[in-house]
Write a structure and sequence with these properties.
Elements (H helix, E strand, L loop, with lengths): L23 H18 L6 H8 L3 H7 L3 H25 L4 H16 L4 H4 L3 H10 L1 H22 L8 H17 L11 H11 L2 H4 L2
Helix pairs in contact: 1-2, 4-5, 4-7, 5-9, 5-10, 8-9
Length: 212
């Protein structure tokens, strides 16, 4: 069921100057180098020169693929989001209920975003934060679209009410889940413990969708 809605059409990425002589292998090598440097030093301390050197390409080659630093880091944010969607979608597909699926999403999101645990998650925390900060409206829409088929399947299974407005429910869940990336302090759960966030979400997230 894994949806492919969220990672589509984010601004940035490959700057096509004579695209015929550009190849995916070099582009991926550049992004992998940028990913390593951002993990080690952060976005603000990673320069185009650093990336070119780490990727083993000339600066001119780097600028043929990514014509500015912002374009490069937007592309890295997109790549990171795509990898997250593949991982979280596969995990959600292994869950039997919408409650477990939403819990899985929330736990993995916090593992990717929260500074206290992000290093353990495999996600590039700085790139994820950039994606959420610079693409807030598209991210909301794509997250709602990503969640939509899971809610539709839950309605078909009878886990939520039959008359549920799928569009409204998708946006509400997306807004609720994404809010955890902004407000990382709580009196009800331990924000640095993704499992605690999951339990908090599962206690309440589905009740409103199932109620009459």
């Amino acid at each position: 069921m894994t949806a492919q809605f969220w990672p589509q059409a984010m601004p940035g990425g490959l700057a096509l100057h004579g695209a015929g002589d550009l190849d995916k292998e070099t582009r991926d090598k550049i992004l992998e180098a940028a990913d390593r440097l951002v993990r080690q030093f952060g976005i603000t301390k990673t320069s185009m020169t650093d990336v070119a050197r780490a990727a083993g390409v000339a600066r001119g080659t780097l600028y043929r693929y990514f014509d500015s630093r912002d374009v490069l880091f937007d592309a890295l944010a997109q790549r990171t989001a795509e990898l997250f969607v593949v991982e979280v979608g596969a995990a959600m597909d292994r869950c039997a209920t919408l409650s477990d699926q939403v819990g899985e999403f929330s736990e993995r999101m916090m593992r990717a975003i929260h500074p206290a645990v992000a290093a353990e998650s495999g996600a590039n925390q700085a790139a994820m934060v950039r994606m959420l900060a610079t693409q807030s409206v598209p991210t909301l829409r794509r997250t709602a679209g990503f969640l939509r088929p899971y809610i539709e399947a839950a309605r078909a299974r009878g886990e939520v009410r039959a008359g549920l407005d799928i569009d409204d429910a998708s946006e509400w869940l997306a807004r609720m889940l994404l809010s955890f990336t902004i407000f990382q302090v709580s009196v009800s759960y331990e924000a640095a413990d993704p499992a605690s966030v999951r339990q908090f979400v599962q206690r309440y997230a589905i009740d409103g969708l199932a109620g009459r």
